[in-house]
TrEMBL record:
Lineage, broadest ranks: Eukaryota, Viridiplantae, Streptophyta, Embryophyta, Tracheophyta
Native organism: Vigna angularis var. angularis
Bilayer topology: Single-pass membrane protein
Record protein name field: Protein kinase domain-containing protein
Region (Disordered): 234-260
GO MF annotations in UniProt: ATP binding; protein kinase activity
Source superkingdom: Eukaryota
Listed Pfam families: Pkinase (PF00069)
Keyword Nucleotide-binding: yes
Subcellular location field: Membrane
Alphabetical list of PANTHER family matching this protein: CYSTEINE-RICH RECEPTOR-LIKE PROTEIN KINASE 10 (PTHR27006:SF616), PROMASTIGOTE SURFACE ANTIGEN PROTEIN PSA (PTHR27006)
Example of a GO cellular component annotation carried by this entry: membrane
């Protein structure tokens, strides 16, 4: 794909002045397409890839609003039967990192699932993970989404500009997002299950438990960490240098959810 065909980052459409340009059909297309792209990395690609830095800023949109997963600078290759890997150097983006990775340096396919769950909640709400406000509620998007869902008012977190979207489909996406951001990695669905959930309403959904960091119980631990977001090439290049050619991915690569 020609890089000049890229239209925008999802983050640009989370801007308050542009959110109305993304109706529900377009948002669902982005959610479903990104899910297929991640599934391709985890299961269908010749190389099994854990992205490790999935976020709105790394999802590009082409002219037809098809999502493209980009920036593989932190990605790792897994062998066929590998379940997880540990690292002493935790790098990534605040809010998108799964707790087992942020606190213990352990990452896996389920770490990417967590990041994708955050992305779903951002796309549905039209707000960024770091700061959200609905009425008198202000805080982490996961916390507010969970409380709203548990209390039967999940519609409150939905972007108010989504006037014509399918209510059941929107609520289902909130539910799926909460399943993906559960604290226990083993409880999170695989991307294959996520794709099935998105494609078929007959695919049953389990009841999600409180997501990671619910109630800000761990906010003090996270506040002490210094490597939430990689803003300069210096930090990223240091980690890249420590990796062999066998477990690194070209960070300029873009993954198409519909590989040819």
């Amino acid at each position: 794909m020609n890089l000049f065909q890229i239209k925008a980052l999802i983050t640009s459409y989370l801007d308050e002045t542009k959110r109305a340009q993304l109706d529900w059909d377009r948002r669902f297309k982005i959610i479903a397409g990104t899910a297929r792209g991640i599934l391709y990395l985890h299961q269908d690609s010749r190389l099994r890839i854990i992205h490790r830095d999935l976020k709105a800023g790394n999802i590009l949109l082409d002219e037809e609003m098809n999502p493209k997963i980009a920036d593989f600078g932190l990605a790792r290759l897994f062998v066929v039967d590998q379940t997880h890997e540990d690292t002493q150097r935790v790098v990534g983006t605040y809010g998108y990192m799964a707790p087992e990775y942020a606190l213990h340096g352990q990452f896996s396919e389920k770490s990417d699932v967590f990041s994708f769950g955050v992305l779903i909640l951002e796309i549905v709400s039209g707000q960024k993970i770091s700061s959200i406000q609905h009425g008198e509620e202000t805080g982490d998007l996961r916390d507010i989404a969970w409380r709203s869902w548990r209390e039967g008012r999940a519609r409150n977190i939905v972007d108010p500009t989504l006037n014509n979207g399918s209510e059941s489909e929107i609520m289902r996406c909130v539910h799926i997002g909460l399943l993906c951001v559960q604290d226990n990695a083993a409880a999170r669905p695989t991307m294959a299950s996520v794709v099935a959930m998105l494609n078929s309403h007959s695919f049953g959904l389990q009841v999600p438990v409180a997501p990671a960091l619910y109630g800000n119980a761990m906010s003090g631990i996270f506040a002490d960490m210094q490597l939430w977001e990689i803003n300069s090439g210096t930090t990223r290049s240091r980690e890249s240098t420590n990796r062999s050619d066998q477990d690194s991915i070209n960070e300029a690569s873009i993954t198409d959810p519909y590989p040819r």
